[in-house]
């Protein structure tokens, strides 16, 4: 086994991959560890393979650069493929728009080796914006995987759904393989589906298995945010899709007798949030982008209870057939 695997799932990311690979080729202080890089092509139609091959010609001989293909569309499937292919004890996930700082790999390896109860951990994620974000964007930036939790190491709180995103996430292969289902209920935004939450679902299974989820401030990546991701057409469906996963995520570490209580709390809590938002902002709910985002998230969270019931009914019918 190697010490570390960097896994980069990509879909039509040929134009974005070179920057990520340049950052990985320039990692420092890795002389005494063994690591590799895997590109997981998630059914791309561009020239991802050519990009990988062009980098191989000038890639360090002691750091394998591998390519694998995952035909089933969806980030959850691409990450599971990476888990199966990885030779590292720890697997660090980078999206094709995540640029790691020069010491990201070594800091990730050191933290995992020093924290034996860590099933997963994440660091600082700094937004690199193509254009200036909208007013009060900092109140919703966590939804776009921009996270900074200070300069001290601390634990996340899975029971409160306070968890890191998949961007820049490092997992212990043993913990994932033993606890996370090979097919998650939430597969991500694929086709006509806007429902997100696959990152949190995997982490909640790690937590259920007794593993800790940490914040490591010595790891840092920069998340490139293009102009279109700050526009209404992208942000509103994103907000609702994240909200729709809320109740299903809460059931993972919940006993069956607690589900009706959480069901009611989810409905009543989000009705309260929506009413308070409407009272405070009134007609600005439609005109202010960040306020509209929050409204859609609360509305999606409210609907997540009925979305869960609908999907549970479908699952039961499939079992009967």
For this entry, give a set of tags:
11 helices; disordered C terminus; Spore Coat Polysaccharide Biosynthesis Protein SpsA, Chain A; alpha/beta; 321 residues; single chain; 2 domains
How does this model look, in words?
The structure is a single chain. The protein has helices at residues 17-25, 48-56, 75-85, 104-114, 173-179, 198-208, 232-244, 246-252, 259-281, 284-287, 289-320; strands at 2-10, 35-41, 65-69, 88-93, 98-100, 118-129, 154-155, 170-172, 212-225. By secondary structure, the chain is an alpha/beta fold. It folds into two domains: 2-230, Spore Coat Polysaccharide Biosynthesis Protein SpsA, Chain A, CATH 3.90.550.10; 234-320. Strands 1, 2, 3, 4, 5, 6, 7, 8 and 9 form a nine-stranded mixed beta sheet that branches. Helix 1 (17-25) links the parallel strand 1 (2-10) and strand 2 (35-41). The protein is globular and about 60 Å long. The model is unreliable at 314-321 (pLDDT under 50).
The helix count comes to 11
Rg, Å, rounded: 20 Å
> What best-fitting shape do the alpha-carbon axes yield?
globular
Compute the number of strand runs: 9
Structural class category: alpha/beta
Low-confidence stretches: 314-321
Mean pLDDT: 94
- What's the CATH H-level homologous superfamily of the largest domain? Spore Coat Polysaccharide Biosynthesis Protein SpsA, Chain A
How many domains comprise the coordinates? Answer: 2
CATH architecture of the largest domain: Alpha-Beta Complex
The SSE order reads EHEHEHEEHEEEHHEHHHHH
Q: Distance N terminus to C terminus?
A: 43 Å
Percentage of β-strand residues: 15-25%
Give a quick account of the main beta sheet: strands, pairing sense, barrel closure.
9 strands, mixed
Highest CATH level, the class of the largest domain = Alpha Beta
* CATH fold category name of the largest domain: Spore Coat Polysaccharide Biosynthesis Protein SpsA, Chain A
């Amino acid at each position: 086994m190697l010490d570390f695997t960097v896994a980069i799932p990509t879909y039509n990311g040929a134009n974005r991959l070179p920057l990520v690979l340049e950052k990985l080729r320039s990692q420092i202080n890795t002389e005494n560890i063994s690591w590799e890089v895997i590109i997981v092509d998630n059914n791309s139609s561009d020239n991802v393979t050519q990009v990988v091959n062009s980098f191989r010609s000038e890639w360090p001989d002691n750091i394998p650069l591998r390519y694998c293909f995952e035909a089933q569309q969806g980030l959850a499937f691409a990450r599971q493929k990476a888990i199966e292919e990885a030779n590292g004890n720890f697997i660090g996930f980078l999206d094709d728009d995540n640029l790691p700082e020069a010491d990201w790999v070594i800091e990730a390896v050191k933290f995992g080796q020093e924290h034996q109860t860590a099933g997963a951990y994440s660091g600082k994620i700094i937004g690199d914006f193509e254009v200036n974000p909208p007013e009060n964007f900092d109140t919703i930036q966590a939804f776009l995987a921009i996270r900074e939790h200070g300069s001290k190491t601390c634990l996340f709180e899975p029971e409160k759904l306070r968890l890191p995103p998949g961007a820049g996430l490092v997992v212990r292969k043993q913990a994932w393989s033993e606890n996370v289902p090979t097919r998650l209920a939430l597969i991500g935004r694929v086709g006509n589906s806007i429902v997100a939450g696959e990152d949190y679902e995997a982490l909640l299974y790690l937590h259920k298995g007794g593993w800790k989820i940490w914040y490591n401030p010595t790891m840092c990546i920069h998340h490139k945010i293009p102009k279109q991701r700050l526009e209404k057409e992208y942000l509103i469906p994103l907000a609702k899709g994240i909200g729709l996963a809320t109740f299903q995520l809460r059931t993972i570490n919940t006993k069956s007798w607690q589900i009706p209580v959480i069901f009611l709390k989810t409905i009543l809590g989000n009705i309260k949030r929506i009413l308070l938002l409407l009272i405070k902002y009134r007609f600005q709910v439609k005109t202010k982008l960040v306020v509209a985002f929050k409204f859609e998230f609360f509305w999606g969270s409210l609907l997540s209870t009925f979305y869960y019931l609908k999907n549970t009914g479908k699952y039961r019918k499939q079992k009967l057939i």
